[in-house]
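Final paragraph of the annual report: two paired records, presented back to back.
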Amino acid sequence: MKFSEEQMKDIVALKENLIEQIEKHQKKIDLLEKNLTILDLTLKESSFTKASQLGRVKKVVSKEIPQKSTENSIPIKQGNDGKIIANAYVTPEQVSIVLGDDVEIDAETPPFKSFFLDRIIGEMKKKDTVEAENGTIQRESVIDYIINKNGSDIREIIIKNYRQKERVNELINTAGWSLTRMLENINK
């Protein structure tokens, strides 16, 4: 069946509208998933009943966000004294780096933005963007991050779409290095 030029324009406009709607809803879904993660952590830390043991919550959360437990955490230690400053939780979709309750680091403390966000994650994002433009990966698969804060202090760094297992070690190691340098800069 042949379509007129005007019908083709309408079809293209409809397609663009659908893509826009999908992106809008995906952002809402991402925000809801982030909120569920935060609620789960809050319940886990402040409740004598583990969130994973709550029947209804478990069903909803287990489908969307893997449970974070100390069993599958990777401790991130401060370089000079070996103190655990954060824990990393790795799922197939994301790496979550949760800072310890006693660790207070302002997001503006160097070298967080200049090294970890701009240089490490930024370079990965550039490579992914090129691959997306070449059609090797979908645009939704480009690495991205979310910084959850309490005031100006970093509480959690969520890195989505790391895609390659090799990146996990680099992200965790460079996060540890960055957090250690940040703590040193705070204590100067």
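The closing record of the year follows.
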Amino acid sequence: MNRVPMTPEGYQKLKDELDRLIKAERPKNIQDIAEARAHGDLSENAEYHAAKERQSFIEGRIQELQAKLAMADVIDPAKINQSKIAFGAKVKVVDIETDTEYEFTLVGPDEADVKSGKISISSPVGRALIGKEVGDVAVVKAPARTIEYEITEINFV
């Protein structure tokens, strides 16, 4: 079984979602099914079919979250050697060609969210940044062009 790196925050977020599904969403959905069933003929009962479909979604998501949590390898960035870019690092870089500054946080695949600057350590940019120090240049081969990022700052939050 392959372990998946995850920050403590990412692990807690998945755990919170699982708890919410089990303690709130599942019981509410069971109640919705019971109410819809009380309306009579199930063959033409749209509420019943919608509630059953929702039940299927909830159960699937619960299983998915349980599997992700079981495979999680929670890594605390504060305990990592902080002189080089590693998992959990918040990195400021400058695109050498366009002089545009970006800030990335390297996280596990399940936590990646490009809009909020969280990139997977297994993404092309993540792989290019790992092991670099301030002042180094990371080269990323993108479909449109080869991007060179100069590392200007590394923080571990």
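The CA atoms of residues 1 and 7 lie 19 Å apart. This concludes the annual technical report; the extension proposal builds directly on these records.
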